[in-house]
Design a protein that fits this description.
alpha+beta
């Protein structure tokens, strides 16, 4: 019986993956959007696939980029301690550290709170645009960009910085008047939108959109 050669990928594909928890290698079928494969031995998640599409990632990323500007321009906190009034932005914190000769700490705060989030958002926006209009060119380079975004993700201190602000609001309440600035709301939205945008992007679409 004659068999025709099929050049397109099969509808159902399997991959052999090892569980990060117990190390068991097992076959995992191609996942549908919004599903997660669990290890048959320990039950730990092996791989998951987001249910959202590139449109959702693009919307979340653009919204985070728009709010990134007021989050860094407007004051995060307004403090009135013992009659001394001050307004502070993220950049003001970096400058203050440099004035006290804490250059290393200032560089870390600058990179982790300003540069890294911007690189992450611009990288996600580039991936979304390349999936939409790239037509299958330089797929390996795009995959490396996605891996880079995943690698720098833990170094983004937006959520940690936000937690520090909330702690300051509680601890300094008895010493003086601490008022959230207009940049705090934008900063909070950037934190949430950045997390959602990163989680909503499915790297498989880099190779599927050819």
């Amino acid at each position: 019986m004659r068999r025709d050669t099929v050049e397109k990928p099969m509808a159902s594909q399997e991959s052999v993956l090892a569980c990060d928890t117990c190390g068991l290698a097992q076959r995992v079928e191609e996942l549908e959007p919004g599903t997660t494969a669990e290890c048959i031995r320990c039950g730990s998640p092996i791989i998951s696939r987001p249910w959202t599409g590139v449109q959702t990632t693009a919307a979340l990323t653009i919204a985070a980029l728009v709010l990134y500007v007021p989050a860094n321009i407007y004051p995060i906190l307004r403090m009135n301690l013992y009659g001394a009034y001050s307004e502070n932005t993220i950049w003001d914190g970096v400058v203050s550290l440099m004035q006290y000769n804490e250059y290393f700490v200032a560089a870390i705060v600058f990179l982790a709170s300003i540069v890294v989030p911007m690189l992450k958002l611009l990288g996600l926006l580039f991936l979304v645009a390349s999936v939409r209009w790239g037509r299958g060119r330089r797929l390996r380079a795009r995959t490396q960009i996605y891996k880079f975004i995943e690698a720098i993700g833990p170094w983004a201190m937006l959520d940690v910085f936000l937690l520090a602000i909330l702690v300051a609001l509680v601890k300094l309440g008895d010493l003086g008047r601490v008022i959230p600035g207009p940049g705090l709301l934008a900063f909070t939205c950037v934190v949430v939108l950045t997390m959602l945008a990163s989680q909503s992007f499915d790297p498989k679409v880099i190779w599927n959109k050819q």
